[in-house]
Each structure stands twice: as C-alpha cells, then as structure tokens.
Amino acid sequence: MKHLFVVHSNISYLAALGTICVENLNLDDVIITSRIDLNIKEPVPVVCLPFVFDKRHPWDWWVLHPYGYVDRFIKKHIGDEPFIAYIEIMEMSSKLFVSNPLCVGYHFIEEGASAHVKGTVRTDIEYNDFNTPAESLRYMSLRDRVKSIIILMCGMSMRNLSLPFFYDAYFRLKDVVFYGFGEDSFKEAHRKKELFWDDIIHRFLLPKRYKLSDSSIWLGICCDEAGIGIPISEYISGIEKKCITHLVSNGVNNVYIKHHPRATIELRKQEVGVFEKAGINVVTIEDNVCMEIELLGENNVSIYMLQTSLFYYARQMGHRKIYSIANYFPEYMGRCALDDMWDEVTML
Known about the structure:
The protein is built from 13 helices and 13 strands. It has about 350 residues and is an alpha/beta fold.
C-alpha cells in the first residue's frame, strides 16, 4: 500500500510528516506532492505537479487532459499499487487523485489555522477552483464556463467536479480520518487523530538555518492583505508604542524579524527601521524559511506579533511568551480574530 500526500504549504508538509509518524508509515511507501514548487528536498522530498488556475489562460495542458495528467504522475511515482490519499482540501488536483481507480481511500491533513476555527463559513462551502467566494452563486464568467465545458468534454465527470471543496463537508464520513495538530484541530470531525511535534523531532532530522533559543522574534503582517485594513503608518506606530516599549523595558537589544512573504519592500524597510531607530539590532529571517521548523525544539523564545496563525503552533510546541499589539487596533481586534485567539496571547 502506498501513501500519497498532497500539500501546498510548510504547515501542511509538517502535517504530512506528523501523519507519517502517527501511522508509522514506511518512507519507501510515501510520496509527497504539491501543486506549487515548495523547494523542499529533506527530510522527505516534495515532488511538484503543477496546477495553474490562471483565469486569463483557460487552456492549461492539465485542463485538456485532466485524468491523464494525474494518472501519468501516479504511474511514475506509485506504479500499479493501491494507494491512500491524504489531502488538505478537495481542490482540483485532489479530486483527480481520489478518483483514480487505484485510490482506495482518502483522509484530510491540517493545512493551517482554518482547521482550528469552530463552525463552517458559508463561503467555504460555496467555494471551488474556478470562482472566488465573493462571486455570484448563479452566474459564471465566459472564461469559467469555457473552462468547465472543456474539462467535462475532456472526460472529467460532473460527479467528480462537484465534490465539496472544503473539508467541513466530510466531517461525518465514517471512513475518513482528520489528522491535525492539537486537540482543537478539526473540532467537529467524526474521526480524528492528533499529530505531535515531538514525534516529528524524534523521527526526522529537520534542516535549520537559525538558532532561536533565548531570542525575541517579530512576526510581521501584510498591511495590504484582505481584511487587515491597517495603514502602514499606524502599523509601524503600533510596533513602536507597544512592542518596542516592551522590548526596551525588558533590556532586549536584539530581535529577529520575519516579514510576511507578501510584504512590500517599503513595508519591510519600515519594519526594520522602527527597531533600529530604538537601538535594537535586527536579523531578518529569509522568506523561504519554515518558521515552524525553526521553532521546533527551541527554548525561551519570545514571539511578538499583531496576529498570525503561527502562534497556534508555537504554543503547541511549548512556547508561552507570545505577545500581541492587537489592542492598539481595537476595530481590527474585534473583526479579525479567530475563535478565542486573544485568550491565548499576552496583550501589550
């Protein structure tokens, strides 16, 4: 029996490793793939199988040969053996994998903070690979209609295409297991198994670039991200008046900064500048670094942030010095929090 993991991020990759540990899978029977190039080569390499969803180009090769595109990958990496698929959400590549005749079952692995939210958001149920949640339920653009017609004409069944996108829809299936970090993951799932960070540390040698024990870290956001709605000037002011005041009062002279991957050059300069202005030395953590891996096994780490899902995993790893400047932005704090998240951090 082979085991195929479909991931798209660092956290879902680590969920795959955690599942391998919990189920004690033989690595010779495991293949991890991603629709984007994660450039992960160790401890278990990720094989990229590109799926492009650019509405401006509805003629992507996989669209013209959906099953053939995936089946060739399965033939190359799995052969003729039956396999179990472990997926994050039922996006297009997952639908094609689970519909393969050799796939004897599928389960879900954690893909981020959304796995810790209680209840189902309506737009999650309505979502699919073609439309954004804000689009009409009734109408499709011409490009979307053309793409759907092409996929159906090229052999993909309507039954396969219409599988629910978000994992909430599968919570009560008897033969589907949900694998997540912490007891709060997949709160309403019928069958779930908890993943443990210590299992990953003990089984795998994880590559690290930084020594974060006894350090302070600022985790940045992207001010232009949908739903943030905080001007850069106010964001920097919040860092200065809340975070830096706390660092200085505690005699902290050095800080690591992990910028949000989508942060602009200007935002990055201002984030670094506000710390250096206060006489605090800054080390910038590279964008392609997996912070969950860097924090595993470290001790006495102080984490400062506005809000980021990383704090969930940091707490599970045993990091308790987690501080937020969110009370500097009362409106944001009220509308953007995940369930009870502010109860888990110290407000500055």
